[in-house]
Amino acid sequence: MDTKTHQSSSSPSTVSSRPRYTPEILQPQTPKAPAEGLVCDLAGLTLEVNSLERGLLFYKGLFGFPLTRYEEERGVVEFGLPSGQRLCLWKPLSRQANSPRLASLGARGGSHVHFALQIPQGSRAAAQDLLRRGGVEWQEIELGPGDLGLYFFDPFGHDLELREVSLDPDDPRRPRIPPAARYNPEFLPVVGLREVALAFQDFDAMLERLPRTYGFTFVEQMEERAFAQFVLATEPEKDGEFTPRRWLYAWDPQVGLAEMLGGEHATVQFYADVDSVQERVREAGLAFVRDRQGLAVRDPEGHVFEFLEPPPPGLQIAP
Questions:
Q1: How buried is 319 (Cβ within 10 angstroms: 0-12 exposed, 13-18 middle, 19+ buried)?
Q2: Which residue in 8, 66, 197, 207 has the most C-beta neighbors within 10 A?
Q3: Which range, of 29-38, 120-129, 304-313, averages the lowest pLDDT?
Q4: Which of 157, 183, 178 is nearest to 168 (CA)?
Q5: Are 146 and 136 in contact (CB under 8 A)?
Q6: From CA 256, how far away is CA 205, in angstroms rounded?
Q7: What is the tens place of the pLDDT at every residue in 66-87?
Q8: Which residue in 275, 252, 272, 273 sits closest to 263, CA to CA?
């Protein structure tokens, strides 16, 4: 392989309000480093699990995601989402890496990750009904006028959110990899990945490093707690209002809404200008792998970020 390693609910729902996007509480701020928009979308997420079988039962049984990879001896399961994005499950194995390609970076699946999935605008009631029938306890939290999220846990302590998004093909906020236009009505109406939330012990260093070293686009920072928001697009823009954009949330270790935690030692894939990101990563002296699949970098906090070249505009990725 041409790979190089470098060291340098069933119960009543709960409705509450969320002040995340209230202007007088959440004020846009100037990031400590330029936000140049090198990262344009979310490609995939890897979760750590202790049972592949239970993971298959939950994610295939509730969501109907097609199984694209199953390697029991490697401890790996991979699902394709209707959008073409990926959701992977890694079961840790003694003295064996789930991904030999990323072994030098110490890549792991994320622990107690909060992530959100996109559902079409107007499909929330159908999703609630399917969760009830599946025996999944959930709660509903108001995020903005008419914009509510459904929160629930998987069997491994990962906190999931279902969020309604616009599927309008003329929406100017349409991401590089758009949400799918169709889904199987027998399962939860998921049409794509929306967001990932990660924990960073050194919050201030993260605020500088993510824009400067990787090119993530900083949007805003919460005043009353250590919480920052990055949009996976070339220019800053507001979250909410059924945007189909994808997002990276970052905070210090804390318990957020719906008892969610930010993920630790997560492996996350992004679409980006790979050559430009590699140049910055090399200058920062971070460990990375570059091969024909893309660029993978070990963040100082233990996360592994993979950067892939985006497909040509208009090309639909097969799930």
A1: middle
A2: 197
A3: 29-38
A4: 178
A5: no
A6: 21
A7: 999 999 999 999 999 999 999 9
A8: 252
